[in-house]
Amino acid sequence: MYRDELAERVARRINPREGACGTCHAIAEEVCATGGSILAYERPSGILARITDDRGEVIGEGFGIVWSPAVLAAELDAGIVPSDIEDRLRRDGTSTQDVVEKVAALFGYGRVVTPAVLALNMVKERGGRTLIRREGLGVVATFFDSKGDAIASSPPSYCPTCAVTIAAAITPEIADPIKKTLEGKPNTGRKKLELGLENRYEIEHGHVRVTLARGEEVLASRVLGCCMAYATVKAEIVAGLVPQASAEQFKLYCNLCPFKHCWMDKSMGATGNIILQRLTEIGAEIEVSAEGYIVARIAGEEIEGRGTLCSLSALTNMLLREDAERILKPSAARRW
Q1: What is the enclosing helix (H) or strand (E) of 153?
Q2: Which of 160, 170, 185, 288 lies 20 to 30 Å from 280 when distance is taken between CA atoms?
Q3: 252 Cβ contact list (under 8 Å, min separation 6)
Q4: Looking at residue 263, what is its pLDDT?
């Protein structure tokens, strides 16, 4: 049976060190390799995702605050994830209904980057800072005030941007100004829902191709990216759904990104999670801010990386651009 074969392939493939994001992409790659498909749809309160088998029958359905965790929820619903990691992925990579609703109240339609950037800037403007760390298979984001006291902390979440957005959504003093700022603003997710668009994903060798379609009408065809989020936004740009200024900034970053030029057979999220895991293990403080791009830096060091959607990409950018020994602090060699 298709599901049994897929479950066996998934069990051989996944590596918990790659975190919820890397694991989700690895599972998705096996779905595609066995003839299945991955689909996602914008909804007012987030993203609906579906996994189908090689005959086009839906075997899993999930809901999340943005595309990737929704796909993870669908993978878990499909019953293809080993039991020894299933509960950990559900706990650290998906969100409760209450959290989904709180995040949707910020902007809705699966848009998390804009609220995350506003939250990062708000904390910074108040003299505080935002730190991230790996916890279990997920990422935790914590806001600190100017005195160094914790304002809010997210539960373990799918990725750093999800964690920042969730921490903001569950903290009224941060959530309320964000809601006010974004009220009535153009929302690409809402536009996609009104157009009746479907997000179609193909994952192979660590990269993702996204097609945006409405039935037989294709607005963007197999647009290449380093993870589901980046590829989806690139497809939205190709389809003409993103404001020109934002599109140009995104293109500039993407063209300069070292990861793009040396595909590692891993998604950006898998690579970034391995780096974040190591930094957490050695007790490094990883600060995240939004200064033109999303920036990740090691506190107390002049080392930083830049991304546009996610701190995992910023951490990968940091490693590829800087001295890896300074960043990861390798342990002393032992006697062989």
Answers
A1: strand 150-153
A2: 170
A3: none
A4: 72
